[in-house]
Amino acid sequence: MSNLTFSWRVDEGAPLLLRTFLREKKQVSKRLLAAVKFKGGLLRVNEMEATVRHVVKTGDLVTMVLPPESPSPSLQPEQLLFGIPYEDEHMLVADKPGHMATIPSRDRPGGSLANGVLHYYKQQQLQATFHAVNRLDRGTSGLLIVAKHRYAHDLLSRLQQKGGVKRCYKALVTGVLSEKVGIIDAPIDRKPGSIIEREVGPGGKSAITHYKVEAESNTHSLVSLQLETGRTHQIRVHFAYIGHPLVGDGLYGDHDEGLPHQALHCDHVAFTHPFTDEVLYVEKNLPKEWRPFVECMHPIH
């Protein structure tokens, strides 16, 4: 996907600097604009090469050519199994398995969704790198938005920061919740002495989780969740805090419940497509390994 090109007509607010048009009207980030300038991209006004200091007028045709992209040499393509329930020229929505990390680490340089997506791009002959819009912990399965180029990543990240990307989760938790619909409002902070664990504490950052019990058995509950904030391990910490840790969560609960990782799944995402204005709704069924728990539950109405 080298030299991807975007063109627009200037239709309001002119005259103004090309930099202002791109930054304020088209939400091109300062970082992307610098990449266009210094890493092989191009700006044109009415088919003539221009700088960001060029003054554009109503009716002018502005063209932005993105610089070519290539992944870091340390990020290697790897054939891995994952689903792609939605894809277009600007993005894809991946279905990340629970055992798979979103990106590789120093200790685990392979086996991540990023490695798998790069292999997929290579098969499709796309010259692109991995731009995750949201992240899912290792052990958390489900839907993850991946931008195919830097401009899409800019727009989708901005949309997410403004609350325009709705992500809903399902979780299997231990025990039966007395309140079937509720809000957990408890600040989350780092746990002293740990670089990984979090805990509820008065000095932490605000964290709010909305939940609804969908089904339950005598020993477990299936809950749907929506986050008002997005703190690290928020769902896992909140449900451990109220005495109902996630099934299989060895960090905040009991790992030995028949699942190899925490039972947390991003089951749908919804947002307005930044290039087409289409409202997208992508949904994914629960993981198969949850069936032994769910099949013995009765629904909560």
UniProtKB/TrEMBL annotation:
Catalytic reaction(s) noted? a uridine in RNA = a pseudouridine in RNA
* Listed GO biological process terms: enzyme-directed rRNA pseudouridine synthesis
What UniProt keywords apply to this chain's record, in alphabetical order?
Isomerase
Q: Which domain of life is it from?
A: Bacteria
Please give the Pfam families that the UniProt record associates with this protein: PseudoU_synth_2 (PF00849)
Q: Domain Pseudouridine synthase RsuA/RluA-like spans what residues?
A: 90-240
What's its job? Responsible for synthesis of pseudouridine from uracil.
Name by which UniProt lists this protein: Pseudouridine synthase
Instruction: Name its species.
Output: Shouchella clausii (Alkalihalobacillus clausii)
